[in-house]
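Section 3.1: Structural characterization of target chains.
Under the original work plan, the team committed to producing a structural model for every single-chain target entering the pipeline before any wet-lab resources were allocated. The record below documents one such target. The sequence was received from the expression subgroup and is listed exactly as submitted; it comprises 588 residues.
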Amino acid sequence: MNKAGIAAVLTDIATLLELKGENPFKVRAYVTGARVIEAMGEEEIAARIAAGTLGEVKGLGEALVQKITELHETGKLEFHAKLKASLPPGLVELLEIPGVGPKKIRALHDQLGVDSIAKLATACREGKVAELAGFGEKTQTKILEGIANREAYGRRHLWWHAWTAAEPILAGLRGLPQVEQAEHAGSLRRRMETVGDLDFLVATRDPQPVADWFVRWPGVKEITAHGETKASVRLESGLQADLRLVPPEQFVFALHHFTGSKDHNVQMRHRALGRGLSMSEWGLVPAEGEGTAKEKAEQAGRQTDIRTEEQLFEALGLRFIPPELREGLGEIEAAETGPLPRLVEEGDIRGAFHNHTTESDGHNTLEEMTRAAEALGWQYLGIADHSKSSVQARGLDEARLLAQVEKIRALNAAGKFKTHVFAGTECDILPDGRLDFADDVLAQLDYVVASVHSAFRQPREEMTQRILRAIEHPHVTMLGHLTGRLLLERPGYEVDVERVIDAAIAHGVIIELNASPWRLDLDWRHWRRAAERGLLCAINPDAHATDQLGYVRTGVAAARKGWLTREHILTTRPLADVQAWLAARRRR
């Protein structure tokens, strides 16, 4: 198991121990252990385990060393499994409700006998939760909203989690001797922000061994179908994965069919009919004649010249449409009249601005974050720790912020890293639209990310005016996570996004595409029109640890869905151009 998995298990143990009411010092030991592991390199962990020196690392006692070693070597931990089994499953499930932590769960269980989400909902509707000390009407209302959101979103999964689960399966399929081609399809291939299930498509003339391999995948919890043309499983993560097996000559047609949205596929079929053709997952054949589309396609068999999606689109008079754009939102008309834009790619990213360190609520130091950015080949890294009003995130006051600025300047001057570090802040936009720092402090920074972190329930007009006031501030460089949404947890607050976009364009302020898999905010659906009107984007991972810098992958995926090219994005520009842009911005 890698360090991210080990840290996740240790964090889960801490949560479970807290649910059981264990000694707070014991709970804290596991939290500390998780942070220590997150801060270490993969090679260092492996080397210390092999040498038996892991216990020399501060914060890792004998018990933790034993458990970390077991996880690293076997991928599982008996202690963790037994601990989970010792608690009612419904009690652990309560943690999925936002705002319901271990202490509140213990109180609900001890005082009301709540041991499931259903019982919690009933207790809330009966007003019993509001009567408990430390809860109240406001908390009760939030819990009910959280339960409602969970029910609405419960069947979906974040794209990042789905992609992480799908990639090793796809690699395994491609490695089988019977497989000629393999791809994932559906909403995962279209890079939707959330995914319902995983769809894999394989071209093969010997399907049974492939289906047998698929259902024996190590992460499979349940087999729901197992045939020669389709197999379906439920993974331990809760994701359903479907495998479809087709002859090689049908692969491209099935891939297009199972990738596109319903609207895209309907429009493509209409286009084919206008040319006297019938388009389906089986092929592209004459619309007239005897037999079903499948029978006609089978008759055409290997005689078809279409072997790639590019050829399929060309057969219908279209340029190639990237999978991310196949939503039925004008991509077909655009592909008919001219080439589609060259969408931004992961390799275009040169750096990012919205990142955190241990100075606020990050898990890695300034130097560790810089080293990780250098390993990615980034030319620059922006540090934007929270401002003082974000007390829950250990936000920096003026003195701490300016000390951090000096540290960043010294790090750049030392030339220790090839990656240049920009000194910034994620500055809270206060409820009345003022910024959390005075102008003389902000003037000493390279840039300012302005974000809302409080008073989410303000009326739409009040929230809009609040953000507009921040945009008008001369020191604001970009807006962070504009709507404040958390995917699968809560919708964004009420705000007039179009007015905010208009103001950002007018004042030369960037709006970030927050690449955290939980945010992807601003939503991709706004970007095409906004970029055409001149809005500049910055893809920022909002990283709180070194491995989270990789979240830019989700940001690029969302940017591609929004029709963005590298010309639309500041963080694709080389260091010298970014320095010049920031300098010009500060002179305004």
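Residues 136-153 form the longest helix (18 residues).
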